[in-house]
Amino acid sequence: MRKIVIAIDGTAGSGKTTICLKLAYLLNYTPVLTGKLYRGIGAYIKRHNLKPEEIKEKIKDLKIEYKFEKNVPKIFVNGEDLTSELSDPEVEKITSKIAEFKEVRSFLYNVQREFVERKGVIMEGRDIGTVIAPDADLKIYMDADIKIRAERRLKDFKEKGKNVNYETVLKELEKRDKRDKERVNAPLKKAKDAYFIDTTNKTIDEVVYEILKLAYEKIYTSKDKLRWRIAYVIVYPIIKWLFGMKIKGRENILKRGPCIITPNHVTFWDPPFVGFAVKRECYFLAKIDLFVTNPLFAWLIRTFNAIPIRRGAGAISAYERAEELLKEGKVVIIFPEGTRSKTGKLLPFKKGAASLACKVRVPVYPVYIENVKEGPLKWIIRKKRLRITIDKPLLPSDNTKEYVEEFNKKIEERVKNLMAT
Length: 421
Ligand code: DC
Description:
Elements: E1 5-10, H1 16-27, E2 30-33, H2 35-47, H3 55-58, E3 64-69, E4 72-77, E5 80-81, H4 89-98, H5 102-118, E6 121-125, H6 128-132, E7 138-143, H7 146-159, H8 166-182, E8 195-198, H9 204-219, H10 226-243, E9 246-248, E10 259-263, H11 270-278, E11 282-287, H12 295-303, E12 306-309, H13 315-327, E13 331-333, H14 352-360, E14 364-370, H15 376-380, E15 387-390, H16 401-420
Parallel strand pairs: 1-6, 1-7, 2-6, 7-8, 9-15, 10-13, 10-14, 11-12, 11-13
Antiparallel strand pairs: 3-4, 4-5, 14-15
Helix pairs in contact: 1-9, 2-4, 7-8, 14-16
This protein binds 2'-deoxycytidine-5'-monophosphate.
């Protein structure tokens, strides 16, 4: 597993900060919100009653530290914690001015370069992909319609209890865009090799997932085992044709990197069918009983990555193995009902899959297998269709007990919705 550097640049209000924080959480990386460094200098100027110009000379005596503690970025200048002053409107004005000074930019260049050298970072700003980390492994440039950005800003201000109107916010943004793009030193612009993402009509999670996919492709390089590739190339087309299998939503699945698949569970056939639908090498948790009845069957499921799981406290070792595999970037199938549903009705979801996803911070794909109980004859004569639907992923953002419970409910709700449509 490689540790990479991700650079995110873009206009104010395009969603950089929120997306950077969520991605950093999922990848367990340090998020570096570089605007805070500039703001830190702005706050220092205000606190010490300096004229903005004076900083050009004084900057060499400053020691600026960026710390990411308890999910909050903190800024210390010469040991003083200036975090609470960073979004003061006057500080913002000073910042925007001093961000144009080449003395300030070259001083902060060195600070930011230290993060780049460390790897395992996501940095967001205006010139990360172009100036600070032209060597970044993945570069993103984000933008959105200015009216939407103004609405987002307005919502932020309102949530913070600030009373401002839409027109003022819009005008401010127009000014900021102009300043960011037209300044002489390190203007905001898309690096040639950056992916452009228009966030106008996208949710935060959609954008996060788009970038996560790209990041996983750089981080994880392992390939599927040969036997799996053979299964997909030779066995799968035959099964698909013979049973008239229909698969929906495969494009949702990541090409590389870890994820958990959570299908409903009706028959023994579910794991291979889900495996075919996913079309990547999968591991799946299977009850220990399956390994003791028939040696040939036991050999087969072991060959195709079944992880034996005991009941009760004995389940821990299977979950530990699944955790290891996810950390290596593998796909793990867990049937959250814990057992096959005799009636085909969805049983209440156990928390195992949700808590593993929250612990390892990986996407979860709800999946619905339809008509699996009907059996091969009905599929062959096309009386019933064997259908597998893969939903869009759910991304965890916390690991508290309450959150895991809520996340588990979300997964269950999604599978129910797939069943209802
Ligand atoms: O992203 P932000 O609003 O916190 O940025 C604060 C200021 O710093 C803004 O005026 C743009 C400037 N900035 C910059 O010039 N280069 C960066 N890499 C980040 C921010």
